[in-house]
Predict the structure.
Amino acid sequence: MLRVALTGGIGSGKSTVARMFAAHGAPVVDADEIAHRLVQRGQPAYLEIVEAFGTEILGADGEIDRPRLSGRIFDSADERRRLEAIVHPRVRHEIVERVPALHAPYCIIVVPLLIEAGMQDLADRILVVDCNEQQQIERVRKRSGLSEDRIRRIVAAQISSSERRSLADDVIINDADLVQVQAQVDRLHELYRALSGAEPHPPATR
Ligand code: ADP
């Protein structure tokens, strides 16, 4: 099976693109979803995080208060690395376990911090979704209500779009409407099927 890692900056359109591949039948493994689950109460990463950051990062329900934790790591690169050292190896481990069990010509592994976390080796091919920074900020602002300043700081903490694109095998430009994104996904779906050696789809009958 061909393993395609899908990455891109915050708000670039990763989830949107992943949904389009899923609609084509591709299994999607999402690193963020795995990370969220791994830090829930009762999971080993939960205890390690509480030990590292203290109970002040917990909400009233005893779960990790993500915005509070994000606030902490945002003001300190050391704390961010500390959190990543707890979470990233576990995410990697779960991806390595789950992917071989999938049955499909290709799969999409969504890893927002693929390059920052050095997880490129988990995939055979890197697909980057990209849009310009102003669109990125606008889309995240609408979606999350975070301030522009905060979003700019998140973008600045990630690698630059040019660095990311220099490592890409494929790029989806998401700077227009969704119809254009869909067309790029459709083309790549055919490419990935072809690369995986799957039978081409028969031509549509009219
Ligand atoms: P990511 O997963 O990379 O953070 P999303 O796919 O969630 O990005 O996209 C960010 C936001 O922008 C979402 O609310 C999404 O619906 C919206 N969005 C993404 N692509 C487009 C587009 N081409 N046109 C309009 N809105 C878009």
